[in-house]
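User: Can you help me understand a structure? I only have the sequence.
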Amino acid sequence: MPLFYLLPDWPRSRVLELAPAYWKQTLEKGEAQRRLDENPLRRALVDSAP
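Assistant: Let's start by predicting it. Here is the structure, written out as tokens:
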């Protein structure tokens, strides 16, 4: 789940943005998607997926 890649570095004051109710809006803003794309562990796992 992408949440676990974002949570460690996400600002505490904005953690509610990662809740399921707000997830779609959070991804649409672009910052979350950019952070996911830049995460080396996630990138390695996505690139190695069949």
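Now, to help you interpret it: Residues 3-47 form one domain. DSSP finds four helices and no strands in the chain. Let me know which part you'd like to focus on.
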